[in-house]
Amino acid sequence: MSNEPKNQKKVRITILLFLGILTLLSAICYYAILRLNPTSIYVGALMMCPALSAFITLKLMKRPISSLPWGLKHIKYLRLSYLIPVAYITLSYIVIWVFGFGDLVNQETMVEWSQELGMEGFSSTAILLTMIVLLSIVGVIKNIGSTLGEEIGWRGFFIYELRKLFSFGTVSIISGLIWAIWHWPIIFLIYKGSGSLLLHITAFTVMIVAISVILAYYTFKSNSLWPAALFHSVHNIFIQKIFTPLTITNDSSTFWIDEYGLMLPIITTIFAFYFWRKAKVENL
User: Fold this and answer.
1) Using only C-alpha atoms, what is the Rg of the chain?
2) Which residues of 126-163 are buried (b: 16+ CB within 10 A; e: fewer)?
3) Cα gap 226→77, rounded to integer Å
4) pLDDT digits (tens, 9 = 90+) for 27-36
5) Residue of 272, 253, 250 lying closest to 93 (CA atoms)
6) Cα four-point dihedral sign 175, 180, 184, 185
7) Phi/psi class of residue 74: alpha, beta or left (left: φ > 0; alpha: ψ in -120 to 50)?
8) Which residues lie closer than 8 Å to 280 by C-beta, 6 or more apart?
9) Would 44 be classed as within a structural domain?
10) Cβ distance 75 to 224 under 8 Å?
11) pTM of the model as a whole
12) What is the pLDDT of residues 88-125, one digit of tens each?
């Protein structure tokens, strides 16, 4: 018992050290994004910051990088981490289309895809199916290189440190809020001066916290960071590269579609309650 307060203090120091390093590294990247040019190379560097912060923290705390949950014993967690984001994204956009917050199919996107694929003159169905298949496989695999930079830090390191101090639910909320706040400068860049900045920040934050519940569940269940990296990649690709580009927008679309609209937070919160209860039943 006498060692418990000492161990908890060490954990808190580790967490604060990680967050301090992350803030410093991220500030450099955000300066480049906000002040120089919001190019993909700077955004890519930003996405590497959580992993770099975790590595540096481990080094300073004299712990090996190999202590992170690199392994994966059960492939089913990868399958589920692919299917869950596809499910909540598809459901969200079906509701959007049904209620008229957007419509199908954006012909400008179809033209861009036909040119990108070199399939001018092919039927819209052939172009649509080809691009969706390629994005859902090749696009997701390529994007894991970026999402891994985040997930090594957030799920591979951060939530495991939090779990030494807090319950599953508290870990999910704390990690989700910090993860969301870390993204806020990007949302400010996108929506500053729009008059709806607060709405989009709030919607994004709710969505991120909800997703954090699911990510924490699959990370702890699998004891691996790979399901989270795959989940994150699928989430990004299916929203940013497939469903949002395919949606014809109207005056109300900005309040409902994409990661900064209201529909995804609603649907992901429903999913989050299910996984929160599931974690409680399983004593996770």
Assistant:
1) 20
2) ebbeebbeebbeebbeebbebbbbbbbbbbbbbbbbbb
3) 9
4) 999 999 988 8
5) 253
6) positive
7) beta
8) 168, 169
9) no
10) no
11) 0.94
12) 999 999 999 999 999 999 999 999 999 999 999 899 99
Backbone angles phi, psi at 103, to 5 degrees: -145, 170
Domain span including residue 116: 71-281
SS3 category, 166 = coil
Q: Report how many domains make up the chain.
A: 1
pLDDT digits (tens, 9 = 90+) for 1-54: 445 677 899 999 999 999 999 999 999 999 999 888 888 899 999 999 999 999
List CB contacts of 57: < 8 A, sequence separation 6 or more: 14, 17, 18, 21, 157
DSSP secondary structure of 236-273: HIIIIIIIHHHSEE-TTGGGTSSTTSSHHHHHHHHHHH
Q: Are 268 and 207 in contact (CB under 8 A)?
A: yes
Q: Which residues pair with 69 in a beta bridge?
A: none
121 dihedral zone (left: phi>0; alpha: psi -120 to 50; beta): left
Q: Do the domain assignments include residue 52?
A: no
Tokens standing for residue 51: 């992993």
Residue type, 16: L
- The strand pairing partners of 102, in sequence order, are 249
Rounded distance, CA 50 to CA 199, Å? 26
**Structural domain contains residue 272:** yes
For tokens 């993909």, what's the residue? 40
